[in-house]
């Protein structure tokens, strides 16, 4: 079984990419064909959880992903730079430096898909 890291680099200035990332990750989880699936907010993507307050449909997708137990993490450094730390905490999204983790995942055979 494959292992996948979905990395959302876009924010709601590109809503189609955000929607594709969330829906794809949720579908991949529901299909149960992967040994592991992880979802990352990186760069401008750390803004998305707060931006989804204005988009209930996509907010539901994110909440479903989190409730399903998919590891969902935002880059702490990007969150600090963009002033999103409190909003990510409110959305119950873990924050950490994800660069080293992504490097480790690639070394362990994960595929990385970016949106």
Q: Label the overall shape.
A: globular
Strand-pairing-aware structural class: alpha/beta
Q: At the first level of CATH, what is the class? A: Alpha Beta
* Spans where pLDDT lies below 50 across 5 or more residues: none
Tell me about the largest β-sheet: 5 strands, parallel
Helix percentage: 40-55%
Spatially, the strands of the biggest sheet line up as: 4-3-2-1-5
What is the CATH topology assignment? Hypothetical Protein Ychn, Chain: A
Count of the separate structural domains:
1
* Mean pLDDT across residues: 96
Distance between the termini: 22 Å
The tally of helices reads 6
The sequence of SSEs as H and E is EHEHHEHHEHE
CATH superfamily: DsrEFH-like
Could you outline the blueprint of secondary structure elements for this entry?
Layout: E1 2-8, H1 15-31, E2 34-41, H2 48-51, H3 56-67, E3 71-75, H4 76-82, H5 85-90, E4 94-96, H6 99-107, E5 111-114
Parallel strand pairs: 1-2, 1-5, 2-3, 3-4
Helix pairs in contact: 1-3
Describe this entry's structure for a reader:
With 115 residues, this protein is an alpha/beta fold. The protein has a single domain (2-114), classed as DsrEFH-like (Hypothetical Protein Ychn, Chain: A). Helices cover 48% and strands 23% of the residues. The protein is built from 6 helices and 5 strands. A 5-stranded parallel β-sheet has the order 4-3-2-1-5, with helices on both faces. Helix 1 (15-31) runs parallel beside helix 3. The longest helix is centred in the N-terminal third of the chain and has 17 residues, at 15-31. The two termini are 22 Å apart.
């Amino acid at each position: 079984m494959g292992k996948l890291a979905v990395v959302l680099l876009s924010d709601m200035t590109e809503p189609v990419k955000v929607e594709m990332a969330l829906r794809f990750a949720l579908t991949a989880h529901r299909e149960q064909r992967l040994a592991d699936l992880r979802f990352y907010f990186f760069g401008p993507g750390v803004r998305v959880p707060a931006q989804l307050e204005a988009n209930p449909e996509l907010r539901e997708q994110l909440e479903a992903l989190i409730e399903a137990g998919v590891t969902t993490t935002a880059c702490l450094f990007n969150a600090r730079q963009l002033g999103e730390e409190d909003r990510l905490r409110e959305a119950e999204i873990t924050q950490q430096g994800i660069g080293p983790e992504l490097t480790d995942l690639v070394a362990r055979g994960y595929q990385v898909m970016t949106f």
